[in-house]
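Lab meeting prep.
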Amino acid sequence: MKLCTQNEPDREVDERMSTVRRLFKNTTILMLANSLQPLISFYLVVEISELMGAEGLGAYNTIFNYVLIFQISAAFGLRNLLTRDLAQHKEKTRRFMIDGSVIALIFSVLSLVAMSLVVQLLSDNPVVITGTMIASLSLIASGLADVYEGAIRGYERLSQIGYAWLGENLARVLISLWLIFSGYGIIELVWVFVILRFLKAGYYFYYLSRRIVVPFGAVDWQFVRELTAQARVFALTLLAVTIYWRADIIMLESMRSDAEAGLYSAAYRFLALSIVLIDSFVHSLFPVISGYFHSSPEQFQKACRKSLRLLVFVTVPMSVLMSLQAGPIITMIYSPEYEPSILVLQIIIWTLVPYGISQIFAYALVASKRQNVDMLVNITAMLANIILNFILIPRYGFIGATVATLISIHIYVGVQVPFVVQKIIHFGGREVFAGGFRVGLAILATVVTVFLMRDFHWIVSSAVAGLLYLATLFLSGAVSANDRQLIMRILRRPDAA
C-alpha cells in the first residue's frame, strides 16, 4: 500500500504533463495550419486576378462568400457542442456521432437548397449561379466534417485537424493553379473545392473509424431532437460572432468608400494574423477544460487561470511592439498611399489583449454548460459593434471603425465578467494585482528599449525589447518556479522526463 501511495502523485504529474504536451503540440500544429491557410489562399487569389481579370476574381469571391454564409446553417453549431460533451462523456461517442451526422445531413441539405435558390434570386451572372449551385454540394461535406471535427477535438487529437486543413489547402492551390495555367475557368476551380472538401470529410471518417469509433448504427430520433435543441444555441452564437467580425468592413464600404475600407483592411490583416495564435491555443484548450470541468473542478480552475495569464503575457507585448512599430511595419509591407493605415494599426492591435481574455471566458462558459449566457453575450457584443460603427463611421470614417472595434471588444469582456469572474473562474485579488504590476514593469522595460534603440532597424529593436520583456518577467517573479519547471518539462523529450 505504501508503494502505491508514493506512485500516485507521480502518476498525476505524468498525466498533467501528457495533457500539457498534447496541448502544446495541438496549438503548434493548428497555429501553423491557420497561419499558412490565408497565405496560401492569398497567392491563389492573386493568380486568379492576374489571369482571369477583375471579373473572374469577382465571380470567384462571390461564389465563396455564399459558401461562407451558408456553412453556418449547414454546420448548425455541432462542432463545439460535440467537443464539449465528448470531452466529458466519451462513453457516448457512438450516439453523438450517429445522431450528430443525421442532424448535419438534414441541415446541410436544407442549406444547399436555400443557397441555390438565393443565388438565382440575387444574381444574373451565369458563372456565379452555376458555380454557387455546384459549391452548395460542399455544404454536405462541411456539415459532416464539423461533426467529425467535434469528435476529434473532444478526444484532443487536434493535430489531425491541422494536417487535414493543410492538406486540403495545399492540394486546392496546386490543382487550381494547374487548371488556371491550363486554360480552365472558375467552374473547374469550384469543382476542385467541392471534391477536396468531400475528401477531407472522408479522411475524418476513416480516422474516426480506425482510432475512435465507427459512426454507424440505429438513429435515436428522440436524442436527435434533444441534440438539435442544444445545437441551436451554438449556431446562433456562431452567427452572432460572424456578423460581429464582418460588420465593420461591410458598413465601411457602404457608408464611406472602398478606399477607406482598403486602408482599414490593410492594418486589420495584422490583427487577424495575430488572432491566429489565440484561436489556435483556445481551440486546443477547450476539450481540456471541458474534461476538467466534469472530472476535476480544481484542475479546471488552474487551467483557466494559467491560460489567462499565459495569453496576457503574450498579447500585451505583441500589442505594445506592433503599436510602437506600426510605422515601419506598414511602410515595409505597403505602398506610401497606405500611410493612414499606421494610425489604424496603432489603435486596433490593442484589441488583441481583451480578445484573448474574452476567449478564455467564452470557452469557460461553454465548458460549464452555460452556452445560453455565451450566446446572449455574443449577441450583445454584436449589437454594440453595429451601433458603434453606425455612429462613428459616418463622422470619422475608417478611424471610427477602428475605435468601434476596440470599444466593442471591451464591452464584450465587460458583459462576460459578472457571469465568469468568481462564479466560474475564481481569482485572488492580490494575485491579480501582483501579476499586473510585474507585467507593467516588463512592458516599461520594453518601451524604454524601443525608444533607446529607435535608430536601429525595427526588427532588431523589437527582438531585443522582446527578450528584455521575457527576462524581466522571469526576474520579477511573474513566471513562478513551478512555471519554469513546467516549461522545461514540456521542452524535454518525453522519454527523457
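Slide two material, second protein:
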Amino acid sequence: KGGAGFKPIADYIHNLGLKFGIHIMRGIPRQAVHAAAPIQGTSKTARDIAHSFSICSWNTDMYGVNPNADGAQEYYDSLFDLYASWGVDFVKVDDICITEFKPHDLYSAKGEIEMIRKAIDKCGRPIVLSLSPGPALLEQAEHLSRHANMWRMTGDFWDNWPQLYNMFEKCHQWSPYVKEGCWPDCDMLPLGRIEINNRNDGGTGRNTCFTKDEQITMMTLWSIFRSPLMLGTELRGLDDWTLSLITNEEVIRVLKHSYGARQIMRTDDTVVWKSKDEDGSIYVAFFNTSFSKTYPSVSYRQLGLNGEYEVRDLWTHEGLGTVTERLGTELNPHGAALLRLREVTVI
C-alpha cells in the first residue's frame, strides 16, 4: 500500500520479537526482460544482463543473470537494497544451490551466488542467505562457506524413514563445514500437522508419519549437527507433544552453544555423535537405525574422555548417575538419546 512494499509487514513481525524472511527465485523476471526494464544506476536494461536459456524447469518466471554482463551486479545490488529498506532479515534463494538447465554443470549459478553475497555485504543490513534446492555439491563446500550462511544438503525432506536414515550420512559428510555463520541445512522439520488441504487425501490434511521415536531422532540429529530448525507445520494446531519437542531448552542449548560435532561410531544398527558445549560439557547422541530395540554403548577411549562424569538425559530431563569407563543406553526402534556429560570435580 502506498509503495511501502513489505516494510509494514516486516515492522509488525519485528514488533512481535520475530525475524522477517522472504523466498525468491534466482535471476530476473522474464517480464522485466521482455519489457527491457532499466537497471537502477546504469544505462543497461534487463535484456542486457539476462541468460535467456537459464530457466528453472519447475518455475519458469525468471531468467538467470549473466555475471559477466555490465549491469548484472547493479541489478542484484538494487534488489538487496530494496530488501534492506523493507527490513528483511532472511532471504532464501531458490534454483541456485544446484541448477538443472546445465546437467553437466549443476553449480552453474556460482557467479550469481557471488553477486548476491556482494549485494548483501553492501546493503547495510545483516541478512542471512539461504540457498536451495539441494543436494548441495560437497566439492563446492568451501565456496558455499564463503558466500552463504545456509545451503540445502538434500532435496525436499519429508516424513519417511528412508529420507531420515539418509540424513545421517549427509550430516557426517558436511560436519566439517559447520561453524558460526555457516550451517549446512537438513531442511524443514515435518512435525505435527504438516498438510491442511491436500487433494490426495480428500482435503482433510494429515499429521506427520514419523513415530514419536523418529521425531526425537530427527530433532536430536538436527540439533547436535546444528542444522537450522525450520518448522514445516501448521503452527495454529500445535499439539503438546510437538510443542515439547521444539521448546526443550536443554536440547536447544545443544543447537546454539555446542561445537565440533562429529560422528564417532557407525554400525549396521547404531550411530553415535559427540560434540562439546562452550561450558565444557560433552554431548553424546545415540541413534538406533534398526527396527528392533538396541543397547548401544561407547567406551571412554572412543569418546576421548578420562575421569568421572555425571550423565543427564536431555529428553527426559533425568539424571542418570555417574560413569567412569563406558557410556550406554537403551533405544527403541528408530529411537535416539541425547546425553550431557559433566566432569565430576574432586575437592
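Talking points for slide two:
The chain has a mean pLDDT of 96.
The longest strand covers residues 258-266.
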